[in-house]
Amino acid sequence: MSQVQLDSELPNRRIKAGRNLHLKKFIEDCKRFIITQKIGFVSLLIILIVVAVAIIAPIIAPFDPISQDRAAFLAAPNSQHVMGTDDLGRDVFSRLVYGSRISLLVGIVTVVISIILGTLIGMISGYFGGIVDMIIQRIMDAIMSVPALILALFIAALLGPAIQNVIIALVIIEVPRFSRIVRGEMLRIRESNFVEASRSVGASSFRIIMKHGLPNMMAPIIVMASLAFGQTIIAEASLSFLGIGTPPPNPSWGLMLSDASMYMESAPWLVLFPGLALSILVLAFNLFGDALRDFLDPKMS
Amino acid sequence: MIEYIVRRLIFGIFVLLIMTAFIFIIMRAVPGDVVTLQLANSGATAEQMDALKAEMGLDKSVLGQLIDWIKDAVQGNLGNSLWSGQQVSEIILDRLPVTIQLAVMSIVLAIIIGIPIGVISAVKQNTFIDHFLKVISIGGLSIPNFWLGLILLTVLSLALNWIPPLGYQSFMENPFVNMQQMFLPAICLAITLSASIVRMTRSAVLEVLHSEFIRTVRAKGAKEGIVIFKHALRNSLVSVITLIGLQIGYLLGGTVVLESIFALPGLGSLIFESVLVRDYPIVQSTVLVFGAMFLLVNLVVDVMYGWVDPRIRAK
Fold first, then answer.
1. Which pTM was predicted?
2. For residues B229 and B222, what is the distance between their CA atoms, to the nearest angstrom?
3. CA–centroid distance for A68 within its chain
4. What residues contact residue B153 under an 8 Å CB cut-off, 6+ apart?
5. For residue A249, is the peptide bond before it cis, meaning its omega torsion is within 30 degrees of 0?
6. B177 touching chain A per CB within 8 A
């Protein structure tokens, strides 16, 4: 009886030890990242602050982002409305705070779905090669041959203004880019010695992909994801600016800029703040992605 | 070389065909068509609407419509606008020059801004100046170009009381007015592009500066200026040209928003206007023209490699 227990506990203990080792290595990597990539670390902090703001938006925002105050429309920044009010008397600061939710939501959902679909397609394409690869790659070529924003505009406009439609449009744009990277990595890994070794001991295709393919392409995917985040947030803002993205009265930053463009001279603060917020968030993602690339692939810098 | 170009062209046409089918299917899969939109409030009966749809060829199957369209397109007939009835090819040719001028101006401006800053960054590698320029250039990548456009317009109108002249005039008609209208949007597009040129130039120049032959050049006693401008910069041109090819998609996409802000009658604003009213023939053809421009620019880029770098030509 006790013998059996011991036997069944042993592998468990080993897995736990392995996990601890991973955790330790991760913490050490983080320390090294903070020391060697100071700009990247500051960017990460900015991103985390924006995430925090988005989560506790109801606590931070002094006003309801949608409720209108006809008595105080187009008010310049003052002690009550720190960033002024818009043409319908809505508090700009509160809208900005709630707007971070839209930018981050569109960014996260788009990037996660794109990574999953892109990785899947890229792996299938890279692993099987031949005719499968040919067909998939030509479709990806076709999607990528149309400028991203134009394709997004086309799809979003056809589907109608709604957040989920913006996400669908952006996913269609991002998937080929991820799949291209994954396919390239897959082709490289397929030729490597360790994959050949595991094939020679009889490992299945599925096992080779999961065990050797995925872990080896995490670095390029993570870097790409960080940069795609920035692009996606700008794309959402552009579509909303054109009036075919997030529908009003949602406080999307792009939509706020679109409203503001009519009051450029009488209320310039309306143009200033949403664009600033947008630029800082995208800048943080780009700098973080850049730092990650330097960190994960020292050959590049 | 010619064989290579022909092969690339055939490949490009193939890609455009797939794109056409893709666009066709999406457009027809989405509810709402031009007839319903046009006659929504006119009180037309269902029969009248069906008759109009049949006249426009919208009653056939998607595949049938696709084949019809390709047949006509091959003969140079892109159909008529469903709203104005004007020939699509005419509308597009009318608007194409605006977008091309905007794109060319942006690329030239981006090169003028980007390459010198990239070289300075590389020469001053890992100094304060380098880090500063790095943040600035990534900053340029992060600013949405339409916001830049709005800010420029706001500042100029508030500080100098100046706004771009209204009513578009082409360069041939009035170069002075045209330049005033085109310069701001071109700068907005150029800033993002120049930011990536800075990054690319920097790493390319660094790579060359660390190579063996530069050591030889230095050993011969060449001045630093000659080392950088004659050798390092020239060798990094290939990567900068590649980058422009890759970024042309971004550039063409950016024209949509900027043409809308600055009221320029180009292809970007055309596709935006048409997509809102479901003018199928125009949208379809415009997306394809954008795709074709993208493929063509990249073909030119690949051909230019050989011209800039004789080593590639030899292969």
1. 0.83
2. 11
3. 32
4. A264, B163, B164, B184, B261
5. yes
6. no
| Spatial distance between the Cα atoms of A94 and A82, rounded to a whole number of angstroms | 10
Using CB atoms and an 8 Å cut-off, which of residues 90-129 of chain A contact chain B? none
Domain coordinates in residue numbering, chain A: 37-296
Which of B141, B271, B295 faces A153 most closely, judged by CB atoms? Answer: B271
Say whether A145 and B30 touch across the interface (CB within 8 A).
Answer: no
Count, residues in chain B: 315
- Residue-range domain boundaries for chain B: 95-312
Instruction: Report angle CA A272, A275, A276 to the nearest 5 degrees.
Output: 80
CB contact under 8 A, B144 and A238: yes
Question: Could you read off the pLDDT of B212-259 as tens digits, one per residue?
Answer: 888 888 888 778 777 777 777 777 787 788 788 878 888 888 888 899
Of A157, A283, A285, the CB nearest to B275: A157
pLDDT band for A114, please (50, 70, 90 cuts): very high
Q: What is the fold of A37-296?
A: MetI-like fold (1.10.3720)
Q: Answer whether CATH 1.10.10.10 is correct for domain B95-312.
A: no
Give Cα separations from A105 to A55, A163, A173, A244, A257 (angstroms).
Answer: 11, 9, 17, 17, 19
pLDDT in tens, A271-295: 888 999 999 999 999 888 888 888 8
Number of H helices, E strands in chain A: 12, 0
Please name which of B203, B187, B206, B207 lies closest in space to residue B140, comparing C-alpha atoms: B187
ipTM: 0.81
Helices (H) and strands (E) in chain B, counts: 14, 0
